[in-house]
Write a structure and sequence with these properties.
Blueprint: H1 2-18, E1 26-32, E2 42-46, H2 55-70, E3 84-97, E4 105-108, E5 111-114, E6 120-123, E7 127-130, E8 137-150, E9 153-165, H3 173-184, E10 195-198
Parallel strand pairs: 2-3
Antiparallel strand pairs: 1-9, 1-10, 3-8, 4-7, 5-6, 8-9
Helix pairs in contact: 2-3
Length: 199
Amino acid sequence: MRKIMIAAGLAAALSGCATGPTRFPVQATRYHFDAMTDRGTIAVEPLTGSGTASIEYKTYAAAVQTELLRLGFTAPPPGQTPQFLATVSFSRAPGMLPPRRSPVSIGLGGGGISGGRGGGVGLGGGVSFPVGGSGAHEGVVTELSVRIRRGPDAVWEGQAQSLTDLASPDADTPAIAARLARALFSGFPGDSGRTIEVP
């Protein structure tokens, strides 16, 4: 009986591990017309519309600006027209996560259990069963789009998209924005027209 209780406890523990949040890669596609070797001053603004930007938009814009500064672009001095302009947009929509299935199974082997002085009850054979796994549940699909212009001409643009498990500890807006921006500018300017996956 003690062995069965230990096995049941192990099954419960492994089940908790198997049903933990899942991390999905970011898919990023970039398009450009030259090697984008020039760097200069750059400003970040919304793709369309005017008025006061939302806090959520500012989070994505800040993530994009962080990556651009890391790549060697600089912020323009106050009152000066930037050499480049990066327009940013994002979207969020519910998305169903695929079912999680655990590859782990527990086997209960045969054995004997004594039932008292008059004899005993034998438990024989073996049973195995999968541990963990769950049905599909909800996540969020987030897309980040950036277009870089130099004067009136677009010189680079890209989109990054990922599915996020809402149970994940990095499912908050700043973490998602930073992850998408980092993937979007990975290997900048990237191979034009090619979609990559970034873990």
